[in-house]
Design a protein that fits this description.
Largest sheet: none
Number of domains: 1
Helix content: 40-55%
Number of strands: 0
GO molecular function: RNA-directed DNA polymerase activity
Pfam family, one: zf-RVT
Bound molecules: zinc ion
Organism: Tanacetum coccineum
Keywords: Nucleotidyltransferase, RNA-directed DNA polymerase, Transferase
Protein name: Reverse transcriptase domain, reverse transcriptase zinc-binding domain protein
Structural class: mainly alpha
Length: 157
């Protein structure tokens, strides 16, 4: 997330135009429509946006659009709290960004191609496993999220 916030990932828009030998391709490997960039990959790309649209409800961020910088702005007010909303939102945003970046690289280097459903399943699994190791404060919205993520009561302190 730090690299995304700082726009330090090596995206296609940052490759010098004279570098024609680049192995990073010239169009986004997810949608094959336009060169990728931080804003495009996270999550304005049609493919990434499909993944994010499936995840944002589970992040409690239904009102957030598909721009990672707007999403970070939306979670900033509660990012430091240890509430379940905060923990779930941060985990889902970070895991979604991670799996989109991983899928982009897998496709770029021909390591395989997953469908939106498969990536969504990966994100859900990894976030749920992480949540099972958390201790969260009990609250009404926390209980709602726990039902959404099928979490046991034991995660609440
Ligand atoms: Zn794309």
């Amino acid at each position: 997330m730090w690299l995304i916030i700082r726009r330090k990932l090596k995206t296609q828009d940052l490759i010098p135009y004279w570098d024609v030998s680049s192995s990073l391709g010239s169009v986004c490997s997810l949608c094959e429509l336009t060169p990728d960039s931080h804003v495009h990959l996270f999550f304005e790309c049609p493919f990434a946006s499909d993944v994010w649209n499936r995840m944002r409800g589970l992040a409690g961020l239904n009102a957030s659009n598909s721009n990672i910088y707007d999403i970070i702005h939306d979670i900033m007010p509660f990012v430091k709290r240890r509430t379940s909303e905060s923990v779930v939102a941060k985990l889902v945003v970070a895991a979604t960004a991670y799996y989109i970046w991983q899928e982009r690289n897998w496709r770029l280097f021909q390591k395989g191609k997953r469908k939106v459903d498969q990536i969504v399943d990966c994100i859900k699994t990894v976030v749920r496993l992480k949540l099972l190791s958390c201790k969260l404060k009990k609250s009404k919205s926390g209980e709602r999220l726990a039902r959404l993520w099928d979490l046991p009561d034991a995660i609440f302190i």
